[in-house]
Amino acid sequence: MDITGIREPLIVGIACIGAFFVFCIFAIIRSQRRRLSAGAEVMIGKVAETHTVLNPRGTVAAEGELWTAIAEGSKIEPGEEVIITRVEGLKLWVIKKEKEDK
Questions:
Q1: DSSP 8-state assignment for residue 92
Q2: Which CATH architecture has domain 40-96?
Q3: Is the pTM of this model over 0.90?
Q4: Were both Cys, which of 48, 73, 98, 102 would link to 62 (CB 3.0–4.6 Å)?
Q5: What is the per-residue pLDDT across 9-45, written as a single tens digit (0 to 9) for each?
Q6: Core vs surface per residue 1-23: b (16+ CB within 10 A) or e
């Protein structure tokens, strides 16, 4: 049907494109308000497990991936838990996690 000299398929197409743009704008705004879920800041304070001896350099398993790590302090044996204190590039700086009394 011809309402104002414009065909219905054109009106429907313009309405769909407009709705798509509104959806995209709201999705962008929502994603900008989310808390950070990736990156160096998120890893600080997390627990990792040593994969090789850290004397002071070695590898640790953190967040399901192997990372190059540098121990702050003494030598750390494989299988021990460490806490990530800082991230520089692809290197993690770690300290040995203290054993909890049971």
A1: E
A2: Beta Barrel (2.40)
A3: no
A4: 48
A5: 888 999 999 999 999 999 999 888 876 666 667 889 9
A6: eeeeeeeeeeeeeeeeeeeeeee
